[in-house]
Amino acid sequence: MKKTISIIGGGASAIILACELDPKKYSVSVFETNTALGRKFLVAGDGGLNLTHSENEKVFISRYTPTKFLSKAFSHFSNKDLIAWINALGIETFVGSSGRVFPKKGVKPIDVLKAMEDKLKHQHVKINFKHEWQGFSEADELIFKTPTGNKKIKSDLTVFCLGGASWPVTGSKGDWLTIFKEKNIDVIPFSASNCSFKIDWPKNIIKIIEGKPLKNISVKCGNKIHFGEVVITATGLEGSGIYPLSPQIRNELNKKNEAKIFIDLKPDLSFDEMIQRISKPSSKLSYTENLVKQLNLNKTQIALLKAKLSKSDFLDPIILVNNLKNFEWTIYSLGPIEDAISTVGGISLNEISEKFELKKMKNNFVIGEMLDYDAPTGGYLLQSCFSMGKFLADHLSEPV
Ligand SMILES: Cc1cc2nc3c(=O)[nH]c(=O)nc-3n(C[C@H](O)[C@H](O)[C@H](O)COP(=O)(O)OP(=O)(O)OC[C@H]3O[C@@H](n4cnc5c(N)ncnc54)[C@H](O)[C@@H]3O)c2cc1C
Predict the structure, then answer these.
(1) Domains of the chain: total
(2) What is the mean pLDDT of residues 362-374?
């Protein structure tokens, strides 16, 4: 006889799991609070659906915090496997110049979602919308709030795929922490990742710098350095150039209530080269005009330097270049969780086995962003969800 399996939540991790479970072995039901699957998946696709990254396994795995948590699942279902899986659904992909992987131009995120939904139909997965999981009954049944009243469901296996807590409008609210806490499962409160970082810019320069990018820079926090681009907002910084430093910034904020970041505004130029370039100003140019010309500085960079340095320091080439190479700012908090791309927190990794089973609740599994791990943007979040889903599906489908 087939076993019953309840998958709670209908995001990326749930979809691949349901697609890949052996339909001869399992009767699979998905329970989703919304009226549609994959709402966060569609939001993720708004600025281009970055499915994964093309880099090699060793580098790929090093992107996660903690680094080893995804090793087994990724070795089982890597970025190459994910690309092949998506291609087999009829969705062509391409690798962008940054190494990131996207659906081919013209293919919308909804097309990818529809292709996955077709596979769910083919696999005879039962999808139950408007089923909001509320917790466990005394007999350990799953309790769902539905438009026709509360339902209790007992299944042989349950997989929780409830997501993190960012973008709660998509349905992933992270309001289930207390349910697991009551079951004596160690849960960590959520905090934002790949989010905006709050900086108190001097008021007099906000009009000049707000909305402006800082391109081709490096940002350092603690012992980690990342190259890329950030955007200045009225209240801080955001963008792919700083997102990968989320764990270091969060750690410093937790320890010291502030985090120092050091920006190299000209990583392609050495200190000596910059000094040499600005040391022979043309008599026709002012000191600032010479800086702009020789170092290719823009108005935003000049405004930031002037706001930070005294007049005499600004006029001192050594202090000025030191600041260009090591521009220090203080982050005083993370931006709001609602606007973050992802979250850390949720179920502690200590609570799950190598196969993602809750050690204290046999036959109950947890995958996806519900778990307490961190990953930068760049396709690493979706890849982790897909790797965990496929890994678990294959494990559960193995002959016993
Ligand atoms: C703006 C934005 C851009 C992003 N861009 C990218 C990107 O380009 N590349 C990338 O790799 N990642 C990206 N991500 C992250 C990625 O979308 C997520 O990491 C991924 O979707 C998480 O999948 P999941 O299955 O763990 O959870 P989710 O996709 O969040 O799914 C969880 C599901 O559970 C349902 N649910 C929650 N509570 C209940 C309940 N009590 N009962 C029933 N159902 C419930 C929710 O409605 C939801 O459908 C982005 C995220 C955001 C917000």
Answers:
(1) 2
(2) 98
